[in-house]
Amino acid sequence: MNPNLFAFEAAYGTAGQLPASDLPEVAFSGRSNVGKSSLINALLRRKSLARVSSVPGKTITVNFYRSGGPPEAAFRLADLPGYGYAKRSDGERKRWAALMEGYFQGGRRIALVIQLLDMRHTPSVDDRTMLEFLREKEIPFLAALTKADKLRKSEFGQRLTALTEALAPFGPVGVLPVSSVTQAGLDELTQCIERAVNA
């Protein structure tokens, strides 16, 4: 996986626009403003490949990034719109729900979901709903604990233990603290992605 060879491919705002899935995909899921776009940029060693905003709910489309290299080794990263943003209108929430249903239940080649969770907090109701969905649909997912750099050393171990225990019933393939700021966990995350798309 060469980060320098990734490029933005396309963005889709409705389920009907989503093209057929012809390559393995790794999807980044999580609540609004949890750091999906920032993590993708850090993972791919870019500053602005994925659009980042301090305003929650900015990503309202499924954004695809395609790897370069040999065609037989190609795959995509999918930046999914965040959930749980209270200020969205009913119409926006319905469009989001339809888009997510279209993505996850459209027969796509989902190799792995990177489920982002803020390491500082207990999973929200919306987080748990998403985790339950992934478990029920038997979609493999890795729990990426973001904002790890914002915790004091004395808090880090406690939060990691608490979240690992809380997430165990949902069956993640791993629980990994990450930071877009310090790059912590990014090498391990890259290895998890490579294993998933090459399985």
Q: Can you describe what's shown?
A:
With 199 residues, the chain is of the alpha/beta class. The protein has a single domain (3-198), classed as Rossmann fold (3-Layer(aba) Sandwich). Helix content is 32%, strand content 20%. The chain has five helices and seven strands; from the N terminus they run ββαββαβαβαβα. The radius of gyration is 16 Å and the shape is globular. The two termini are 14 Å apart. 38% of the residues are buried. Residues 53-57 have low confidence and may be disordered.
Approximate strand percentage: 15-25%
Number of helices: 5
**How helical, in percent, are the residues?**
25-40%
CATH superfamily: P-loop containing nucleotide triphosphate hydrolases
The CATH topology assignment is Rossmann fold
Biggest beta sheet summary: 7 strands, mixed
- Distance between the first and last residues' Cα: 14 Å
Mean pLDDT, nearest integer? 89
Question: What is the CATH class name?
Answer: Alpha Beta
Radius of gyration: 16 Å
Number of strands: 7
* Neighbour order of strands in the largest sheet: 1-3-4-2-5-6-7
Shape: globular
Model regions low in confidence, pLDDT < 50 over at least 5 residues: 53-57
How many distinct domains? 1
Structural class computed from helices and strand pairing:
alpha/beta
Assigned CATH architecture: 3-Layer(aba) Sandwich
Helix-strand topology string: EEHEEHEHEHEH
